[in-house]
Design goal:
The structure is a homodimer of 427-residue chains. With 427 residues, chain A is an alpha/beta fold. Helices cover 41% and strands 23% of the residues of chain A. In chain A, the strands form four sheets. Chain A has a six-stranded mixed beta sheet, with helices on both faces. In chain A, a hairpin with a 5-residue loop joins strand 16 and strand 17.
Chain lengths: 427, 427
């Protein structure tokens, strides 16, 4: 029996597109991992009538659980708790213990506030300490507590509702205690024992995978018991499969068919990313970057990971030709002869970065990200790569990527990581 | 009279959080600019019943316009057009001209497909060329045409519905012709003449702005006729105000109050970003970067802009101490004496980058992004900056940023741009 949930994201800044919502996708992923089927995510602004309409919609759709994010602040336009309480026909009551708890937090965070009892700060605390009758508070990690309201059966049943704050850090930190609360635990206990596995491929087209899946359907009985989604991102094709544990054999069979057809393109079946695999492939070796068209994106991606200073020595963004010569020792006459976007220059950049930064490995990019700069011979999207590994001849390759400047730069960054891993694994 | 709209984003990969939706925010922003009040954004997977429920919900909410994205591909799980047609009680008909048009596009994009009439490709084309009776096609920029279905009055009125493909590039390219179609133009003609203006501040707290707005409310009559939203992003505070043209005087008055209170923190009132302002402030001068904790993010941000090669010469990501010495001439004994995270090293890095890359301006960052590496004296989040401008003493400053590694790196990148602009404007 499947448990269904809906997510409501509130906030005019999200509805109007000024802030990209992080909470909907995050909550959806968490609920999926708990075996819950997320049917709808809805986004509304700070208007109570629109929030009420979305609550009504989800309740009428028969979901077992609604999770909301946002609208828990101390100011007058933060209306989620009051609106949900009215929807559930529950009175709001001040929880004195919660009021003290919030006041303590504010005292700790903002020691310069002289008198909490004066004026707007106390009004704000009292507002945040109001909890619907019969509901329980989720302890705050910021200043805003969350709320869990148990389901009510009846003619128009109301599902279990979890109210969480908008800042993603707070919401994520409070999620686990919301999940552990008895009303939510009860809903989750009815969820199926679901698994979710990811196969990642690089250099594989969606149409090719679709054809293999059609073929698999003729070969594997009950393949339709698996819920398969494919998605293309930054040039990588992910296939995510959800299934109940009793269908694990069907998934294993599917994985065998996929590996049989596309083994050379599949780089991950255990959820690991190419960034994870690069660390493994480096195996203690150090790396440097020499970037032209990616302008620092590869270095930024390598250093995004905590602890990366152990193996990333640094890099050079050689945007101008002078920078290529002065900082990476690319001969000016090589640039004149072959052009800055050439495999010769890519090789010299990678070798220069490895020598100058004293690393075991270096990767380079030089290309035309657009929109200008393309020629008939080297159109926008043309990128040359170099991978220099200590003790081996430098590897170079030219690729052509579709799309606008941002897309070319992103695809180039992902391609560079795949090329480094492939070369390192070629021992 | 206000025109209300709803947006439906379809796609299991979006619903399950594996891909962040770009279309909801983009469409919302476009509709706002056209004076339309977006009431709801809803997200569903590839299940027809859930899409139908969302269409019913929005229609019952009385919206004048629904825009959907996604589910227009050639495969069997792309069901948007069929589902919407059924919702509107309109039959699907094959449009032979559209079929030819799509076939032409596929011939151009994939010349290696030998015979379009064979098998699955032709089935897919026929599927994409089906249009509900009485609807019109929006010419495709990929292979999937969009659809515009006119509103129908009655007991349960159906609003005007625009169906667009999921890939953001295609959706955005097709938007303008969807907007120009007669049914949509008719809806938009009823929209109010709305304006939207943005004030951007740096170094201003939300609470300070809230207090100023409360003060403005006592001073300005009818301030509540403006719809004001504030949002904090990467350390910048944006205040976006929507108002009808006849309330322009109220907005002008508000702007005067804001400038009076926070003139030194407000850096933009015309919608320009700090990235835009950096170009103006450079005024033809060239720039280089020297990055430690930001690891290439500043260079990547500077080079994200088309044409940036005219003034960005490049940069050095000096993650290791050796890289700081070897590539930026930071004396090793300076690092030993003051630590890599020090204003002395930041100054030397900026000066080294300016000299090595031969630029007029250079900016440097060296700091502790975390989670490790913090000390009592220099906790995680401590960052030293240097700005070197030809002919002036090097400016340095130390800041402390809150949050995790990603947040510290992002806040540092934004801070660096603000510091460069401030120093350039200090002529």
């Amino acid at each position: 029996m499947s448990v269904r949930a809906g997510i409501i994201v509130t906030g005019t800044e999200v509805l109007t597109g000024r802030i990209a919502d992080q909470n909907g996708p995050w909550l959806s992923d968490q609920l999926l991992a708990l075996g819950v089927d997320v049917a709808h995510i809805t986004i509304c602004g700070d208007r109570p009538a629109d929030l009420t309409a979305q609550l009504r919609f989800l309740a009428d759709q028969g979901v077992d659980l609604i999770v909301t994010s946002g609208g828990l602040g101390p100011t007058a336009d933060d209306l989620t708790v009051a609106t949900v309480a009215e929807f559930c026909d529950r009175e709001l009551l001040l929880d004195p213990e919660l009021e003290d708890h919030i006041a303590d937090i504010i005292r700790r965070f903002r020691p310069h506030i002289p008198d909490l009892d004066a004026g707007p700060t106390r009004v704000g605390i009292r507002k945040q300490a109001q909890i619907p009758v019969g509901a329980s508070a989720v302890p705050p990690t910021g200043t805003a507590p969350g709320v869990v309201i148990p389901a009510v059966a009846g003619d128009r049943p109301v599902p279990t509702i979890v109210i969480l704050p908008g800042p993603p850090g707070e919401l994520q930190a409070m999620w686990h205690s919301a999940v552990a609360s008895p009303p939510v635990a009860e809903v989750l206990s009815r969820a199926a024992d679901l698994r979710q596995d990811t196969v990642r491929a690089y250099g594989l087209h969606e149409a090719q995978l679709a054809e293999t899946l059609r073929h698999a359907d003729t070969e594997i009985a009950d393949l339709d018991r698996l819920e398969i989604t494919t998605c293309l991102r930054h040039g990588e094709l992910d296939m995510v499969t959800r299934y109940t544990t009793r269908d694990a054999d069907i998934y294993r069979h599917l994985l065998a068919v996929l590996t049989d057809h596309h083994g050379d393109r599949i780089f991950s079946t255990d959820g690991s990313t190419i960034d994870d695999q690069l660390i493994d492939a480096l195996d203690g070796r150090s790396i440097a970057t020499a970037e032209s068209c990616t302008g620092g994106l590869i270095a930024a991606r390598l250093t995004a990971r905590p602890g990366s200073s152990a193996y990333v020595m640094g890099g050079v963004v050689s945007y101008s030709n002078d920078a290529k010569s002065d900082l990476l020792d690319v001969p000016a006459d090589m640039i004149a002869a072959h052009g800055a976007v050439s495999e010769q220059v890519a090789a010299a950049m990678a070798e220069g970065a490895r020598r100058r930064l004293g690393t075991d490995v270096a990767v380079s990019t030089t290309g035309i990200a657009g929109p200008g700069g393309g020629t008939a011979e080297k159109p926008v999207g043309t990128v040359c790569f170099g991978v220099s590994i200590d003790g081996r001849p430098t590897y170079t390759v030219t690729r052509r990527f579709p799309g606008d400047r941002e897309r070319v730069r992103t695809l180039t960054t992902t391609a560079a990581l795949h090329l480094v891993v492939a070369q390192l694994e070629r021992q």
